[in-house]
Amino acid sequence: MSHKCAICGQLTTTKIYEGCVVHCCQCGCNIVAKQSLGNIIQRKIVEFDQHECIALARRSPHDGVDESTTRVVLCMQCGQPTIPKQYAVDSAIVIDECSQCELVYLDPGELENMQMYVEGIDLLVLKPR
């Protein structure tokens, strides 16, 4: 079943990414169930350059979410506003989450950045410099 993308308004399609269902649209946004997000992040089917992963993990994090610059994203399933959240305390990645439906809205490239960030942290812990 197609829904309208909460970010760009286009119809979404469904794909399987890292073994999990992801809704996406032509603008490159991804919408995924919160419970599936952890599975996607931990799987290692898609491979990334180790140097890029480490560089992303070392990037300076934001000081939380800047509420003045966030946009309002309405959940495609329930219509409630999503909540912008920092992906991890020490990351610069901000995601939009619906607390009611537990859907996570990701801008183009954020899903891959989350995977690279976790992989980079793992590499830094295993091979600190």
Order of strands side by side in the largest beta sheet?
1-2-3-6-5-4
Could you describe the largest sheet, including whether it forms a barrel?
6 strands, antiparallel
> Uncertain runs with pLDDT below 50, 5 residues or more?
none
Share of β-strand residues? 15-25%
Report the count of strand segments.
6
Mean pLDDT across the residues is 84
Number of helices: 3
Task: Report the order of strands and helices.
Answer: EEEHHEEEH
Between the first and last Cα atoms, what is the distance in angstroms?
A: 48 Å
Question: How many separate domains?
Answer: 1
User: What is the share of helical residues?
Assistant: 25-40%
Structural class: alpha+beta
Computed over alpha carbons, the radius of gyration is 15 Å
User: Overall 3D geometry?
Assistant: globular
Description:
There is one protein chain. The protein is an alpha+beta fold and 129 residues long. It has one domain. The chain contains three helices and six strands. The chain has a six-stranded antiparallel beta sheet with strand order 1-2-3-6-5-4, covered by helices on one side. Helix 2 crosses helix 3. The longest helix is centred in the C-terminal third of the chain and has 17 residues. It is globular and about 45 Å long. The model has no long low-confidence stretch (mean pLDDT 84).
